[in-house]
Design a protein that fits this description.
The protein has 335 residues and is α/β, with parallel strands linked by helices. It is built from 10 helices and 17 strands. The protein has helices at 22-26, 67-82, 87-95, 100-112, 119-132, 134-150, 157-163, 165-181, 185-199, 316-319, and strands at residues 4-6, 41-43, 202-203, 208-209, 214-215, 222-223, 228-229, 234-235, 240-242, 254-255, 260-261, 266-268, 272-273, 278-279, 284-285, 294-297, 300-302. The chain has a 6-stranded mixed β-sheet with strand order 5-8-11-14-16-17. It has a 5-stranded parallel β-sheet with strand order 3-6-9-12-15. A hairpin with a 2-residue loop joins β16 and β17. α8 (165-181) runs antiparallel to α9. It is globular, with a radius of gyration of 22 Å. Residues 1-65 and 331-335 have low confidence and may be disordered. It comes from Spinacia oleracea (Spinach). Residues 1-22 are annotated as: Disordered. Keywords: Acyltransferase, Amino-acid biosynthesis, Transferase. Its EC number is 2.3.1.30. Belongs to the transferase hexapeptide repeat family.
Length: 335
């Protein structure tokens, strides 16, 4: 059984949904919710399948070999059981695809497309980058696990994939950064602009970002061209990793592994935030922060003092603990 969509979309190819066998279709209960009374519905492939160039199946990892993707498919089927009204959305976004790469390329293309640059064109572009650069997909999966493990609001992998704009903005940046590094700067800047418009996250395509990244809420995050972010970093909303003015060259912060940056923080200039450091919410950081220390305030100062700062015994980006030690900054209790 084929899915149903309106004929107002792009014309279907003759071989609809070629990635799926007939037996696969019969397994999906959500297909029963296509109403036959609609005269303008025809069987066709999701947008990612239309006018798609043939891809060697060996370039993808089978569902049974990719545990994370298998979990996402299972979660998607469960969600559709609970909310049949979302069946077509889940089919186009997850269940019609045989691998993570295609689903991600399709979902980002649907989010970032506009009248002058359609989703099919973006899908082909995004998929080609993901296929040719396998390290990106490793980073994507580590980001997905990071959100699921660290964000208490994340109830499933598939919900992060579909609805968490911080995760999606980060993955769009990974694609844009690869294009930037290949000299395709005009295209990379266009993707940056669309990500900023759609997700309210502005990351210059020149910025270098590690894996296992959590952009929690993400609204208002701004990251400059020469910024570098290490692995397993957690960043809250309204964080700026920016410059100090019109200085050219290497002018943006360098964030170490395992760092936690609280909401509303500004880190300005080519300063280093050491591995495992914590920056309190609303801080303005203008100088280096040593590893495993806590900085808070405007301008930010180290908890415990510069000469003998309190050392953190746990990685703050993992614990997501925003308050330990910070209350010691105040002369009187907060409550």
């Amino acid at each position: 059984m084929a899915t149903c969509v309106h004929t107002s979309r792009a014309e279907p190819t003759k071989n609809c949904d070629s990635d799926r066998s007939q037996s696969d279709h019969n397994h999906y209960r959500y297909m029963n919710y296509c109403r036959p009374s609609f005269s303008d519905l025809v069987p066709c492939a999701p947008i990612s399948q239309i006018n798609q160039k043939p891809v060697n199946s060996k370039e993808f990892v089978a569902d049974s070999e990719d545990d994370l993707w298998s979990k996402m498919v299972k979660e998607a089927k469960s969600d559709v059981e609970q909310e049949p009204i979302l069946s077509n959305f889940y089919y186009n976004s997850i269940l019609s695809h045989k691998c993570f790469e295609k689903a991600l390329a399709n979902h980002l293309a649907a989010k970032l497309s506009f009248s002058s640059l359609n989703s099919n064109t973006l899908f082909d572009l995004f998929l080609s980058v993901l296929i040719e650069n396998r390290e990106i997909m490793k980073d994507v999966k580590e980001d997905l696990r990071a959100v699921r493990e660290r964000d208490p609001a994340c109830i499933s992998y598939v919900q992060c994939f579909l609805n968490f704009k911080g995760f999606l903005a980060c993955q769009a940046h990974r694609i844009g950064h690869k294009l930037w590094s290949q000299g395709r700067k005009i295209l990379a800047l266009m993707i940056q602009n669309r990500v900023s418009e759609v997700f309210a996250v502005d990351i210059h395509p020149g910025a270098k970002i590690g894996r296992g990244i959590l952009f929690d809420h993400a609204t208002g995050v701004v990251i400059g061209e020469t910024a570098v972010i290490g692995n397993n970093v957690s960043i809250l909303h309204n964080v700026t990793l920016g410059g100090t003015g019109k200085t050219c060259g290497d002018r943006h912060p360098k964030i170490g592994d395992g760092v936690l940056i609280g909401a509303g923080t500004c880190v300005l200039g080519n300063v280093k935030i050491g591995d495992g450091a914590k920056i309190g919410a609303g801080s303005v950081v203008l100088k280096e922060v040593p590893p495993r220390t806590t900085a808070v305030g405007n301008p930010a100062r180290l908890i415990g003092g510069k000469e003998n700062p309190i050392r953190l015994d746990k990685i703050p980006s993992f614990t997501m603990d925003h308050t330990s030690h910070i209350t010691q900054w105040f002369d009187v209790p907060m409550f």
